[in-house]
Amino acid sequence: MDQSARVTPFSTYAFEPRGCTMKRVITLVSVAVLGTALNTGTLWAQGTPQSITAKRVDVVQLATGYRASRINGSPVYNRNKDNIGTIDDLIVSPTDRVPYVILSVGGFLGMGTHLVAVPFGSLQVVDKQMRLPDATRESLKSLPEFKYAPE
Fold first, then answer.
1. Cβ count near 84 (within 10 Å)
2. What are 34-71's pLDDT values in tens digits?
3. Domain boundaries, position 75
4. 59, part of any domain
5. pLDDT tens digits, one per residue of 66-118
6. Cα–Cα distance for residue pair 1/83, rounded to 1 Å
7. pTM score
8. E strands, 4-149, in order
9. Which of 21, 52, 84, 131 has CA atoms 20 to 30 A from the CA of 9?
């Protein structure tokens, strides 16, 4: 077999004079892509710097606290241990960031209930029960009715 007629296992296209143009195009495109990728980091860095000031929290103690998912649906009692309502939801005020408990008062099986907003700080936890000591069902019904905003 003639040595000059043998096919080489690799392409010599990049080494030919006309192949240099393709090699340059590939190199330029690679540099452009790499430059764009590196430049995005500086674009992110040019944004307004944000800082988070977190106060130190004892996470072990915090973990023993009351989760909203467990508070919702809990009965609320007064000082006389009368059931005066049920916690329907927990809402944080958008302006002053104060948490409120939405209580469902009265009604039967969800019918005829009266929703009222009570500051979360008014509640007490006694023997793993939520209590609103000085409230009665009637005093809660006299509060303005709470209605959820449309989403």
1. 22
2. 555 555 555 555 566 677 777 888 888 888 888 888 88
3. 68-141
4. no
5. 888 888 999 999 999 999 999 999 999 888 889 999 999 987 666 678 999 99
6. 102
7. 0.60
8. 75-77, 83-92, 99-105, 114-119, 124-126, 129-131
9. 21
35 and 98 share one domain: no
Nearest-angstrom CA–CA distance, 97 and 144: 21
Q: For the chain, where are the E strands, in sequence order?
A: 75-77, 83-92, 99-105, 114-119, 124-126, 129-131
Number of domains observed in the structure of the chain:
2
Check if the beta carbon of residue 102 is closer than 8 Å to that of residue 88: yes
CATH code (residue 136): 2.30.30.240
Over residues 135-150, mean pLDDT: 93
